[in-house]
Amino acid sequence: MSSRQVHNGDMPTLPLTPSRPLGPTDVLVSPLCFGGNVFGWTADTEASFALLDEYVAQGGNFIDTADVYSEWIPGNVGGDSETIIGQWLVARGGRENLIIASKVAKLTARKGLAPDNIRAALRDSLDRLQTDYIDLYYAHEDDENVPMLDYLQTLDELVKSGTVKYLAASNFSPARLAEALRLQREHDLSPFIAIQDLYNLVERTKYEETLAPIVAEYQLSSLPYYALAKGFLTGKYRPGVEVDSARAKGAAAYLDDRGERILDALDTVAAAHDCPVAAVSLAWLLTRPGVTAPVASGRTVEQLRDLLPMGTIDLTAAEVELLNSASA
Length: 328
Hints:
The chain is globular. An eight-stranded parallel β-sheet has the order 9-8-7-6-5-4-3-10, with helices on one face. A two-stranded antiparallel ribbon has the order 1-2. The longest helix has 17 residues, at 257-273. The protein has eleven helices and ten strands. By secondary structure, it is of the alpha/beta class. Helix 1 links the parallel strand 3 (33-35) and strand 4. Helix 2 packs across helix 3 and helix 8 (257-273) crosses helix 9. It has a domain at 20-232 and 288-298: TIM Barrel, CATH 3.20.20. The two termini are 27 Å apart.
């Protein structure tokens, strides 16, 4: 059976119908995890509500945020994305049908993984999200200033208390991730069931050579961030084309000979499936071992709709090889 199909063999009724298990659990999530980093940044409250409404209307159930989103914007203090999601949850209801992920460690006011800081950060996130539990709670980055076992035991306490259902890690070095997983197993602590790290068609080497083996060994879900390479893999960045985007400078950095080869391959596959380039870029990630759902976002409903076919595209072996070769 193709990994792109629901387990009973039937295609989803909607593009984002939950069909992919989250780590070694029986929780099913959508093939696209909607990235909430845009909420309170490039999407104001009204636009964020529209995006969340459309995502759920298309079958989506997996929303990603962090306490630090979007502290980097003048006038914001962090927690902006969580606050908007919380307002939307209260307005729309249906919390029990959603998988909400958030993170701790990067917000200036709640920096690091000291036990008391983790507990305080979680309380803050729950208040902003207006919920009494978070489904997937990440250590957003490692903290070598705190004994690893101390923060792993604290995270385990949160799971045992019911305020967090599952744990995940982001931006850990491969060695430290492996050490954390070993300690969790050795001390019978609630384990990380997922990782969120940089992985896409133009950024492959670190993940495939160092993280993918750990994902396989521990049956983790890989939930790649920058899945569209700051927008480059949407296909809108071309030689001589200026794009009005907050991420334009970062995306344009990929526009070299290799980047153009990747775009050519994406164009070929997108034409064959009569779908946007962005959807093909995300569909390729879903063919990678261990990848459960890439994290991607859009600042408009139209941009989100360009991603939706990724949930139903079945790439042929030849198409996957074309993309692999172009991006090697």
